[in-house]
Specification:
Layout lengths: L3 H27 L3 H18 L2 H15 L3 H25 L6
Helix pairs in contact: 1-2, 1-4, 2-3, 3-4
Amino acid sequence: MGSTGVAHNFARDYIRIWDKRRTYLEASIADDDAEAAMDAVLSLKNSALMVGAARLAQLAVQLERLVKCGDLPAVRRLLPFVALTGEQTVSGLKVGYLPPEA
């Protein structure tokens, strides 16, 4: 990313909008909106890849396949794992990557 400051800012932004991403995915699945679900999954996958969240990115790849197949019920069953993995990612970034706030 060029500099540590830029990377730290990206990680902070990722943390700040995690709940919005998760909520968007959950709402799209609750509404049975495959198009919005795909948008949410791609956002989740790409941001996870960019922040180095390998487990979350792998889960998003699985979700992408399921949405492409039209299996929104299977996506719905995975939502608790998405939430847990996302929270673990946020926690890991806060504790293991970002410097303490001054």
